[in-house]
Amino acid sequence: MRRLRVFRSLVKDSLDTITHGSKKYHLWMAFLTFGMLTGMYCYSIQLEHGLSVTGMTDRVSWGLYISNFTFLVGVAAAAVMLVMPTYVLKDIDFKQAVLIGEGLAVSALIMCLAFVIADMGGPSVLWHMIPGIGVFNFPNSMLTWDVLVLNGYLFLNITIPFYILFRHYQGKEAKSKVYIPGAILSVFWAVGIHLVTAFLYQGLQARPFWNNALLGPRFLASAFAAGPALIILVLAIIRSFTEFKIQDKTIKKIAMVVTVAAQINLIMLISELFKEFYAPTHHSESAYYLFFGLDGKDALLPWIWTAIPLNVLATVLLTFHKLRNNFKVLFFCCFILFVAIWIEKGFGLIVPGFIPGPYGKIAEYTPTGIEIGVTLGIWALGAFIFTILAKTAIGIELGELKYKKNKEN
């Protein structure tokens, strides 16, 4: 009964916290609300007319939605780079950032599920994803494995931080024997969610562009570069606009993780390019289309030739210790690296896998305004959820939200 009272008090205090703030905070939330409403309007058009309003066709059946889904799975998995040092290795330098990282993971996973719903056409077909009711096809289908691991990882990233914050809200320390087993499990689960997503593509023998043994490891390398890069940018914003001060050494340690992962990712990219272009076969046509175009079709050239230089530039700058420790350079590198990997794991991975088709036909894909509107709406939803989670967590960690204090009042 007491826990229920504490929970009700926490909900009440959280609602009070997220509905009050500075003018900049309210403008930010209004901007995100506008983005979500725009996305809902675009989605209503898709519900009415079906997926015909998107740029996807029978030739290219995965587009902007699945591109963002694939990328965000990596962002969610990147939380493990903070969870493992904090909870398992007891590195106190990561302690300030770990709850922020897990909040980003929750937001990213919710966006992942939203993109899956958008790509399926509408929520009316979701019953197919329910075990025992729909056509779940477990364990044969890799899609069902993906659904299970994503929802399991979401559960872990909600329950562990909630328990810790619930204890801190009461002025108590969280018991390590309660959350450490879940934290250790989440480390392996984080690797699993991205490997399963990679296997989803890698197991399609008819798509040689994806049927690559290096795809799984490269998914992890790119995830551990882009995810922590985003965490660094978020931490920079938080320590600029809130009283929650993140120490420089925490950001520098995360920057080292980004640097190593970016270097490994670049090495793997070079290895893939060598495989595709040194001794090309007819299976290399997708790569040729992506990097050079085929038969006059070159819609993806501006995308990939933007991503590659940004990736190389960010990795080179981060490699130098002095440049990496300059926060202006670091934040710039993290931003362009995040954009570069978003392009590579989005348009640079998903769309070329369908081009050319099985009979050699080249049908290009360009997202429509409806797709872009829905996509921006889902990103706004993720940012909205993260803002709410972060504002509540920061309030508890700073001691501004306390159960005993409210009880006395």
Which keywords apply here?
single chain; 409 residues; mainly alpha; Formate dehydrogenase/DMSO reductase fold; 15 helices; 0% strand; globular; cell membrane
Radius of gyration, in Å, reads: 22 Å
Strand content: under 5%
Q: What sequence of helices (H) and strands (E) makes up the elements?
A: HHHHHHHHHHHHHHH
CATH superfamily: Formate dehydrogenase/DMSO reductase domain
**CATH architecture label:** Up-down Bundle
Derived from helix and strand composition plus strand pairing, the structural class reads mainly alpha
- Overall pLDDT, averaged? 88
- Described by the principal axes of the CA atoms, the overall outline is globular
Distance between the termini: 20 Å
Per the CATH scheme, the topology name is Formate dehydrogenase/DMSO reductase fold
What is the count of DSSP helices, taking H or I runs of 4+ residues? 15
Major β-sheet annotation:
none
Give the beta-strand count. 0
CATH class reads Mainly Alpha
Contiguous low-pLDDT stretches (5 residues minimum) are: none
| Helix percentage | over 70%
Number of domains: 1
Pfam families: NrfD
Membrane topology: Multi-pass membrane protein
Keywords: Cell membrane, Membrane, Transmembrane, Transmembrane helix
Transmembrane segments: 27-46, 66-85, 97-118, 147-166, 178-201, 221-242, 254-274, 300-320, 329-355, 375-396
Textual characterization of the structure:
Its main location: membrane. Pfam families: NrfD. This is Polysulfide reductase NrfD. It is a multi-pass membrane protein. Belongs to the NrfD family. The chain is mainly alpha-helical and 409 residues long. It has a single domain (32-402), classed as Formate dehydrogenase/DMSO reductase fold. The chain has helices at residues 2-18, 23-49, 64-77, 80-88, 95-120, 142-169, 176-202, 215-241, 248-277, 285-291, 301-319, 321-324, 327-345, 369-397, 403-408. The longest helix has 30 residues, at 248-277. The two termini are 20 Å apart. The model has no long low-confidence stretch (mean pLDDT 88).
